[in-house]
Every structure is written in C-alpha cells, then in structure tokens.
Amino acid sequence: MRNKPAITDHFGRRFPYLRLSVTDICNFSCTYCLPDGYKKVKGASPFMHTDEIIRLVKAFAALGTWKMRLTGGEPTVRKDFLDIASGINAIDGIEKLAFTTNGYRLPERAQSYYDAGLRAINISIDSLRPAKFEEITGHDYLAKIMDGIQACYDVGFESVKTNTVLLKGLNDDELDDFIDFVADKPISVRFIELMQTRDNQDYFKAHHLSGGAVTEKLLARGWRLKPRIDGAGPAHEFEHEQSRGTIGLIAPYSKDFCKSCNRLRVSAKGALHLCLFGEGGYDLRDLLQNDDQCEELQDKIMGLMNFKKSTHFLHDGNSGAREHLASIGG
Predict the structure, then answer these.
(1) What do you get for the CA distance between the two ends of the chain, in Å?
(2) Which among 16, 215, 218, 245 could bridge 187 via Cys, Cβ 3.0 to 4.6 Å?
(3) CA 283 from chain center: how many Å?
(4) Tell me: the pLDDT tens digits for 253-264?
(5) pLDDT tens, 113-159?
(6) What count of other Cβ atoms lies within 10 Å of the Cβ of residue 315?
(7) CATH of domain 17-327
(8) 54 near 300, Cβ under 8 Å?
C-alpha cells in the first residue's frame, strides 16, 4: 500500500507530485512563452548535474512523493536526459515517471524514452493546422510530431496526452478539430488557459481566453465531467460516450483552482518553488552535494512548506517573479 505523502501545508493539502525542470533551454520559440527564442544569461549558474538530481528525488521519494514529471524548457535537449530518467526510475517509491516535451525528436526517440522508464508523456501541440502550428511555435514540425504520437503508442506508453494553450484569435476555432482528433484514439487533449507572466502582458491581453468558454462548448456537445483520480493534476477531464479519447481543461483563473494543489516544483538550478507564480524559489543546491545530506534536505523541504500560500494572485494581475514559463517548466 502506498504511504500517504508526508509533505503537507497549513491548508491540509498533500503533495505527492513533483515537477522537476532539468533545463531552461528550449529549441522552440512559441509566441506565448519565448517569442524571441531562448537567450542564455551570462554568468548564470549551471543546471543541476545528474547526481544532484538523483539525491533530490531520493529525498522527495522518502517523503512520499510518488509521481514525478521531468520538464524544461525542453527537457530532451539535455544530452544526459536518458541517464536522468533511468536514474530516477530506479529510485524506490517513484511509481509514475512522466515528461513534457515539444516532441521534436519523438519519432526516432520514443523507444529510448520508454526504455529509460518513462511511461507517461505530454506533448505540446497548440494547433492541428500546420500553418497555424508553425506561426505559434516557429517550426514546421506538426506532421513529425503526429508521427511521434503514433510511435508512443507503438512502444507501449501507458499515458499519452497533448497540451494546447488556449489562444484567442489563433486557435480558439479548433475545438471541433480536437474533438475529432481524440474520437478514435485513447489520448487526452488538455486545453490550458494562457497565463500572464512578467514579459507577456500585451500578448496576454490580446489572446487570453477563459477556460469557461471551452467548458460551455463541451457540455453543450454532450461531454461530461469525469471524477478525479488519485494524484491527478489540476485538469478537469471530460469524456463522451462516442469518443475513445478525453478532453481536459486547466483553468488557473477559475474559482478555487488552488484548492486541489498537489504539486511542488524544483527548477533546473535546484530551487524549490512552492507555487508556479510565487515570488521566487528556495535554494536546495547546497544540500545536494553528498549522499549523507538527505535527512537535512528533507528537514529543509518540510520547513519550507510553512511558507506556501493558499492561492496564487493571478486574479490581481500579480504573476509573481515568473518571467516566462520556460524558466520552470510550467
């Protein structure tokens, strides 16, 4: 029987789920995130090494974390990405190892990802129309990514999901396309509300679309809300009796969005972020240098939970210190 996670906050929430960024680098230039592409910061500290990552995950696993997602940037640009995944997969207590990717090398790498112990994948697809996909991401890769989805099924991935950022005036007319897309395959498309960050305020004003609009359309088309499962993320999942796949909605501006928060985040440089839109992270890196620091690291993680707030402050126009989502993996 799985132990209940020991990591809790003052609001009764438990945290079995860690999103771990392994790099800030991304090779796409999505209009809502990195419209000018990734820019290296001079003098910035290096990303965590593999051994530091393994020590970090062991500490979280010992505190009851059983679900792990590797993120970026684009996590697969790291040359040691497979080593990282394999190392985490071997840690006692980690039951589900997932990752989020733009899928640019998926057709040829799906098997190696699976062999490294990854069993769940989220692929970013912001449009099903090639020209629009290229306009949003800066790359004409849609057909290749679609081949990669099939490759994931072929090698045996247990969970295949796609992420689509809702963008008013860009992809908000594609709901029927996505409904058709999931009709004949066991895939989950998750629509994500565009979130305001420090550097996208004008873009946010022009393209933000409330997730409520999607909910209304789905319910009108006969879709119904599925019950939440243990360890699930913030998505509300909808199903339809005539569809093999499902459609999810992540709406951070909705009422009580943070009530079911069950995840923490660690940046690629070893900082614990209690909220995606908090004022900053808490550095853990000095406690990742030796195996005998595990207990001290666990004590620090537990102590920092005293600073977790009940909610984000996006409704007040406050996105915290978050410059862009690639800096912590969303």
Answers:
(1) 31
(2) 245
(3) 21
(4) 766 667 778 899
(5) 999 999 999 999 999 999 999 999 999 999 999 999 999 999 999 99
(6) 11
(7) 3.20.20.70
(8) no
Structure tokens at 328: 């912590």
pTM for the model: 0.92
Q: Assess whether pLDDT exceeds 60 at residue 324.
A: no
Interval 204-226: pLDDT, tens: 899 999 888 899 999 999 999 99
User: In which residue are the tokens 């998926």 written?
Assistant: 106
**DSSP states of 150-211 as a string?**
HHHHHHT-SEEEEEEEE-TTTTTT-HHHHHHHHTTSS-EEEEEE----TT-HHHHHHH---H
Q: Domains of the chain: which residue ranges?
A: 17-327
Half-sphere exposure of 5 (CA within 13 A, CB side): 24
CA 75 – CA 206 distance, rounded (Å)? 29
Structure tokens belonging to residue 200: 């996208």
Q: Give the pair of three-digit tokens for residue 70.
A: 């590797």
Any idea which residue has 């796609």 for tokens? 162
What's the CA gap between 68 and 98, in Å, rounded? 6
